[in-house]
Design a protein that fits this description.
The strands form four sheets. A four-stranded antiparallel sheet has the order 2-11-6-8, with no helix packed on it. Strands 4-9-7 form a three-stranded antiparallel sheet. It is built from one helix and eleven strands. It is mainly beta. The chain has a single domain, classed as Deoxyuridine 5'-Triphosphate Nucleotidohydrolase, Chain A, CATH 2.70.40.
């Protein structure tokens, strides 16, 4: 288990895993009053959280499935990446993809954060790539699109 220093400027509890098998920790809205999002409107929701990830780790911000299916609220730029050298507040870019207005209340669980290991790669310029079974087949190449 990796330890991550965190500052919490909100009045919400620290993010935590709901179960022993959970991959993500819920992030909550740190807003003073309810915010209404109309259809296709987006809002950058503050969390009041600041983290110091170790080198070689990232935090991925992902939608909450229940929020998406029940209210049509999801995260844009998903998964959002929090880099190990970022020290600013974690904010969640929510969008309402539903037809009806949705209200975000202070303390609502609005996204989840997954901590992942990452490696940096060195790109090596070559003139040709090795063949593979798939080759250049892209979108819909299996005929199932």
């Amino acid at each position: 288990m990796v330890q991550i220093p965190i500052i919490n400027h909100s009045n919400n509890a620290l993010p935590a895993y709901a179960t022993t098998g959970s991959s993500g920790m819920d992030l909550r809205a740190f807003i003073n009053a309810p915010v209404t999002l109309g259809s296709l409107e987006r809002f950058l929701v503050p969390t009041g959280l600041f983290i110091e990830l170790p080198q070689g780790y990232e935090a991925q911000v992902r939608p909450r499935s229940g929020l998406a299916v029940k209210q049509g609220l999801t995260c844009l730029n998903s998964p959002g990446t929090v880099d190990s050298d970022y020290r600013g507040e974690i904010k969640i870019l929510l969008v309402n993809l539903g037809k009806e207005a949705q209200v975000i209340h202070p303390g609502d669980r609005i996204a989840q954060m997954v901590i992942q290991r990452v490696v940096q790669a060195e790109l090596v310029l070559v003139q040709q790539l090795n063949d593979s079974e798939r080759g250049t087949g892209g979108f819909g190449h299996t005929g199932l699109l």
